[in-house]
Amino acid sequence: VSRIERLAAVLEEPLLVAGLPGVEAGQANVRYLTGLASSNSAVLVEPTGRATLYTDFRYAERARALGTVDVVETPRGLIGALGPLLRGRRIGFEAEHLPYAAYRTLAEAGVDAVPRSGLVEALRAVKDEGEIEALRRAAALSDEVFTALAAERFSGRTELDLVWWVERSFREAGAAAMAFGTVVAAGATAAFPHAEPGERAIEPGVLVTVDAGCVLDGYCSDCTRTFAVGHVSERQRDLYELCLEAQLAGLAAVGPGVSGRAADAASRAPIEAAGLGEAYGHGLGHGVGLQVHEAPVLRPESTDVLEPGNVVSVEPGIYLPDEGVGVRIEDLVLVTESGRERLTRFTKELLTVE
Ligand code: ZN
Ligand code: ZN
């Protein structure tokens, strides 16, 4: 059964899935359903399973070559062209991915546009064999780059120099792009979960967090390791071990039928027991696929329940700005019928780099 047919089966009315300029999640939904990667397209899926793909001149030829859906070439202002075509019909739209101005254009053209939410995301959350293979390859590339990184000298180099080294290594190893801006955060910088790498030279005696991921065949990887530069304090080692304990507890909790909330809580327990609950201010993880952040989510307020085929990150962290130290350890994990399979396999022992 095709992805479009699976979506059609849960529709009450036709659904307009729009991937307009600047709306990455919508673009990923169109790509997931049709195979077309573009920055300006929309697919209308009818409950009958019929689908029509709208896109402009730049993508029309590739869209027709897909051979899976009817293609209508529109001017660059795609929604303006769609309005008259859909006038008088009741059409669902993706509330999270259709800009308000586009909604207004449809409504003013006489389309009865009704908001819908999470329908394609729910399908995307469960990966098929081909997707799992792509994610496996992306994760293996991460392992390769982290292995090489562990042999690099850190001290004396700037965070941005190492960012460039990491990104260049991914590209040379075959990655199509980075999945997000690489983070290399040394010492006090690592105490910020979303650290900004800078021109500071890294000094011995600090922990360095490296969070990087690539895109391969359209699918993302996401992996974080924390390294010790030269000799680090007992306290820093203890914090690392505590983060690792939390990461292993989170990993062990991941499995089919487990709620995102429960997996998160499992990883939180050791850190809370050590009195550092406040220092772990983000969720345990997120789904990874065509986008680096997608369903399901693992965090205290999550309503998601894991099922086989989910691919999620498991990434607890401890951030202590007052002590100028931060630790995060992240793996990419596939939920299987019986439990879980780690896709990123690079060692989680605290590695000392020069
Ligand atoms: Zn990450
Ligand atoms: Zn992540």
Task: Offer a few descriptive terms.
354 residues; 10 helices; six-stranded mixed sheet; 20 strands; four-stranded mixed sheet
Descriptive report:
It is a single chain. The protein is of the alpha+beta class. It contains 10 helices and 20 strands. The strands form 6 sheets. Strands 4-3-2-1-5-6 form a 6-stranded mixed β-sheet. Residues 222, 286, 313, 315, 330 line the site of one zinc ion (ZN).
pLDDT averaged residue by residue: 97
Assign the structural class, choosing from mainly alpha, mainly beta, alpha/beta, alpha+beta, or little secondary structure.
alpha+beta
Count of helical stretches:
10
The strands making up the biggest β-sheet line up spatially as 4-3-2-1-5-6
The CA-CA distance between the termini, in Å, is 53 Å
Global shape: elongated
Largest sheet: 6 strands, mixed
What is the percentage of strand-forming residues?
A: 15-25%
Number of E strands: 20
Write out the distinct hetero groups bound to the structure.
zinc ion
Estimate percent helicity. 25-40%
Q: Low-confidence runs (pLDDT<50, min 5 residues)?
A: none
Radius of gyration: 22 Å
SSE ordering = HEHEEHEHEHEHHHEEEEEEHHEEEEEEEE
